[in-house]
Amino acid sequence: MEAAHAHTPGYGHDDHDAHKPSGIKRWVMSTNHKDIGTMYLWFSFSMFLVGGVMALIIRSELFQPGLQIVQPDFFNSMITYHGLIMVFGAIMPAFVGFANWLIPMQVGAPDMAFPRMNNLSFWLLPPAALLLIVAQFMPGGGAGVGWTLYAPLSTQAGPAMDLTIFAIHILGMSSIMGSINIITTILNMRAPGMTLMKMPLFCWTWLITAYLLVAVMPVLAGAVTMTLTDRHFGTHFFNAAGGGDPVLYQHIFWFFGHPEVYIIAIPAFGVVSQVIPAFSRKPLFGYASMVYATASIAILSFMVWAHHMYTAGMPVEAQLYFMYATVLIAVPTGVKVFNWVATMWRGSLTFETPMLFALGFLFLFTLGGFTGLVLSIVPVDVQLHDTYYVVAHFHYVMVAGALFSAFAGIYFWLPKWTGRMYNETLGKWHFWLSLIFFNVTFFVQHFLGLAGMPRRIPDYALQFAEFNAISSIGAWGFGLAQLLFLYIVIKTITSGEKAPEKPWEGADSLEWTHLPTPAPWHSFETPPVVK
Amino acid sequence: MTREAQFESILEHDSAGFTYFKRYASSLDLRLLLLVFGSLALLSMVIATGFAVAGAWLILPFAGIEMFALGSVAWLVLRRAGDFERLALRGDRVLIEIRERGFSQQFEFNRCWVRLVSGAAGSVALRSHGRDVEIGRFCDEESRQALVQALRSRFDGNRISN
What is the DSSP letter of A145? Predict the structure, then answer.
């Protein structure tokens, strides 16, 4: 008996590439996971620049004590929208871009499970971003309430607040659709033999992240809707004068907000877990423990929200519980850091740009995690709450954690995406400039916080002047270094050297082993068999 | 993504007969699907109910909308997961079994009376006694032609017609 099984690894032929749509329709109506991934990444970088300009306005104002450049209201608005745009517009879409590009290729699927919904998920983002930007020009200016949108400030803010609420709703819808798509793709579209425990860790981290997103997004949607009804429809959810409770808003927000930190960090773990083994030329150490540690972090993230509000007033038993639960997160996080280091141990290491950024992530994220432990201790946090120590802590987690990992991923997969190699020398310049200027910006902020400088103020006492000046110089350096990154990416796309089929010999996931470089328009028209 | 890419096919032919089988390529583990979607719905509901008890009841409708979306997706996935098309030649019998979007159909023809007919938009059907049954419905043009070639040699004399 002869049997023909359509099991050979397959991908779109060149003639399929010739049939791909062109012009604006290719992008507006795209259902191709690669195109949508590309749009996510460019959108994310655009928002990174917008949020970055806002950061530079903040740091320029803080270069010297006194009011120099902007008015306090505008400063507060910059604080708010810098946070919102970086979290919802830059970092989250960046990792959704990675997910779009990589998950179908890594599980051996032809595309995402719901390609049209994927298109809609992306195209909801630009109007939401536009609303956040337009909010600056509303009567009274942008809402100066901080990215946490705490009541009662948010219930009293001007019309910009309504646009912000609407934008958050749209961003939430996009996130939920993206998450459902990712969960379904991973569960339902894996190639034969690709069991869950054979998936690349990046897919695992996104499966867990998508689960977190679906679980917490209704909480955020509810929080901002209640803010809206308090503002316009006579409800008193957060209005103490009407029997409401402004502290309830804080509980709701942080029940969303703390998992949100891991929604950002966990895909970053996934990227680093792909990059470090590739440049160590060894399999990831402790794969199963990495999966369980990631899941543990996700579960614990639901149980620690009130460590953000020790000073809001809570019983000492509750403080103790939240302190211990928060400290507990160090265990699975420690497992991950140990496994990354153990992967490198006796590996045949090389230090190309992706590896440098992954190591930068490892070093600085560990520092950020450590200051997080410091802040989890109630008596310490009571002193440091809302100081620059907190600002330094979360920038070590968000920038050095998420952003450095995103850079590692972009340099790692850029040859696969474009078919061209980036300039290694320039990539290393980008890394070292980013690393140095990042630390110049944020390390000194620990000292400012320890000395008592509060966050979210446009003016400060003279005693904080030197460290603020250093921090502002670092911020400008860091910002300019990112223009170098833009140049590197554009140069790679337009005139980079042709990339070899497999530029990283240690890379072993399906997109490297079963697909040509650059990845074809259609990948895996017949599913590969994974042994 | 072509529809073909979502299906896996098996083509077997020997002296005893011929079997063509194409099914939806799904790595779906029903228990896992129920575990993931069920636990998500439960978690979302527990969170929303907890906040409703604390006075923040407006989280509940959003959790409800999301559960509806999750349920719809799970239903869609389950409905598609069982899709297949089987065509078997055993002696003089031509057996066709199709399951699409949850609906199953079975047909049996006599091989001597069956003709391959091509229809609109490149579709192919088996015709017998005035009845047409579309085959290769999950195929792209290339693999549909391969199926037609394989069948043509077995329906000697039963020519393709329009």
Answer: S
